[in-house]
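Hi R.,

Here's the chain you asked about this morning:
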Amino acid sequence: MTTTSRIPSLTPRRLLAATAFAALSLAAAPAQADKKSSVALFKKGKKRFNMGEFEEAISLFKQAYDEYEAPAYLFNIAQAYRQMEDCKKALFFYERFMAEKPDTSEAETIRGYMAEMEEMCKAAKEAPEVVPTTEAETETSEGTDSMSGSDET
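And here is the predicted structure, written out as tokens:
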């Protein structure tokens, strides 16, 4: 009596499953690397934020988000823009964060930040536009004032 080993044949379904498994296995490694590099970028951004270097922090937080789309990065970008008093951009990123994490435990606090930014934007629209004067205009007006004063003596 001879025994034969039975090797399962690769049906289209089994081939598809094997291919999908291999693809997922290969995709997991870059995803892990992306998350790791994004965390490193975030840590650098947090350091810049804590040093008051908000523009650099924003750049690093955005790079981190490009590497790995963690909603917390959107919140940190919004916070940096809020610190810079850029109400439009802060609002944009708070809104993006809330869209990604609508059930966050910090929703009430974030809505407060959003209200603060909305008020800031509203006040900026209502404020009169200040036209900067050039140094030459300032010198001319100062010279006129001193000459008119000398006429009175």
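One quick note: Confidence is low (pLDDT under 50) at residues 18-28, 144-153.

Cheers,
M.
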